[in-house]
Amino acid sequence: YDARTTIFSPEGRLYQVEYAMEAISHAGTALGILASDGIVIAAEKKVTSKLLEQTTTSEKIYLLNDNVICGVAGITADANYLINYSRQIAQNYLYTYGEDIPVEQLVQRLCDLKQGYTQYGGLRPFGVSFIYAGHDSHYGFQLYHSDPSGNYGGWKATCIGANNASAQSLLKQDYKDEITLKEARELAAKVLSKTMDSTTLSSEKLEFATLSLNDEGKVSYHLYKPDEIDALLKDFDLGGAQDRPTE
Amino acid sequence: MEFLIGITGKDFVLTAADTSAARSITVMKSNEDKSCDLNKHNIMLYSGESGDTVNFAEYIQRNVRLYGIRNGIELTPKAAATFTRKELATSLRSRHPYSVFLLIAGYDITTSKPHLYWIDYLGSSAEVPFAAHGYGAYYCLSILDRYHHPNLTLDEAKDLIKKCINELKSRFIVNLFDFKIKVTDQDGIREITI
């Protein structure tokens, strides 16, 4: 029953979809936290090397539209395809309605695509889970999570990738409803440091981004540069390594 | 001979259309409603080639309604106008373009502001504080230029429309004797008398 995605198993399961989720559980952790004045996305990079050109490429966190960003866990090539697709969807909406796409609609469109790959075509599902962080005028700041089955949910704080269960329970313990963006950043860094394999955090292994409103009330996205991440980690007493590991 | 007019106020939009449906020299109906409720806070007034008007208006209305049902939120006036304009722009280069003149008036509940859009069959769209379609526009726009300001109250707007209608009655050769006047504000769309 494994061979084809378009077939149920006798117990009523879709094995290919489950195997896709298994692939994601080996990927680098990504987590998102919804604060009252913004959203934080933090992620652990798996591909770390001195030779990697860090300033030009992003492995985990991407901009989808002026008002939405996402964090990725899973097969990077699959993620790139879906990110490109959702960027087109967002622009198409802007073209038709003259306004930014509401966050949930963007999530739904992407999930509809993912669901299609579990039902027809005979192609394998996408091996990616997303965390979407966005803002719109209808519901303010929102955080969503979607997986290869095409299911999605709205969250206050969530986590995908390796060790996501332990990260999720840590988030559950420490998250409070009126958390500010400042506190959320610290919580994100702390939770990641506890769930990551390595002993100390450094900007080499982390991607960090925030979504908030600037002084004019417009959505502003900040992808932290390596030195900004180091400064942040120092503030929280979590590392900010100066030594680069030898390869 | 058809006349449409829209006036934005502080937190509402006042719209009016004449109510006669005529072909050549005969008036077939004198209580025609030339408007379509797109959703709770958006209304569209239409005039132009008969058949095209209602067809296009209903098409837009159904699409706007579908959006509301699918997504649980209603389209803002700007989004509805952009969508409508795009449909007209596409229709323009088709075998038989829709020949319609529209006013889209609405109250944006996310920003609590009223909006009015003037749209024509070529796919031109402009957001304006007041607007009119038809020959009547030539008589009314100057009155609106003179007396309109952004913080109009409903009573002031009603007076303004009265001025416009009286001008038409005295100077326009076609006797537009009756008008359907509606207000769109945060409570929705309702018909009023002046």
UniProtKB/TrEMBL annotation, chain A:
Highest rank taxon of the organism: Eukaryota
PROSITE patterns from the UniProt entry: PROTEASOME_ALPHA_1 (PS00388), PROTEASOME_ALPHA_2 (PS51475), PROTEASOME_BETA_1 (PS00854)
Keywords linked to the UniProt accession: Cytoplasm, Nucleus, Proteasome
Domain Proteasome alpha-type subunits, residue spans: 1-23
Compartments, record wording: Cytoplasm; Nucleus
Pfam families documented for this protein: Proteasome, Proteasome_A_N
CDD domains for the chain: proteasome_alpha_type_4
Principal localisation: cytoplasm
InterPro entries to which the protein is assigned, alphabetical: Ntn_hydrolases_N (IPR029055), Proteasome_alpha (IPR050115), Proteasome_alpha-type (IPR023332), Proteasome_asu_N (IPR000426), Proteasome_bsu_CS (IPR016050), Proteasome_sua/b (IPR001353)
Quaternary structure and interacting proteins, as annotated: The 26S proteasome consists of a 20S proteasome core and two 19S regulatory subunits.
Family stated for the protein in its record: Belongs to the peptidase T1A family.
Identification of the protein by name: Proteasome subunit alpha type
Organism of derivation: Gigaspora margarita
TrEMBL record, chain B:
GO biological processes: proteasomal protein catabolic process
Name by which UniProt lists this protein: Proteasome subunit beta
Protein family according to the UniProt entry: Belongs to the peptidase T1B family.
Complex and partners: Component of the proteasome complex. The 26S proteasome consists of a 20S proteasome core and two 19S regulatory subunits. The 20S proteasome core is composed of 28 subunits that are arranged in four stacked rings, resulting in a barrel-shaped structure. The two end rings are each formed by seven alpha subunits, and the two central rings are each formed by seven beta subunits. The catalytic chamber with the active sites is on the inside of the barrel.
Function text: Component of the proteasome, a multicatalytic proteinase complex which is characterized by its ability to cleave peptides with Arg, Phe, Tyr, Leu, and Glu adjacent to the leaving group at neutral or slightly basic pH. The proteasome has an ATP-dependent proteolytic activity.
Source organism: Gigaspora margarita
InterPro entries: Ntn_hydrolases_N, Proteasome_beta2, Proteasome_bsu_CS, Proteasome_sua/b, Proteasome_suB-type
Pfam families hit by this protein: Proteasome
One cellular-component annotation, GO: proteasome core complex, beta-subunit complex
PROSITE patterns: PROTEASOME_BETA_1, PROTEASOME_BETA_2
Keywords: Cytoplasm, Nucleus, Proteasome
Subcellular locations according to the entry: Cytoplasm; Nucleus
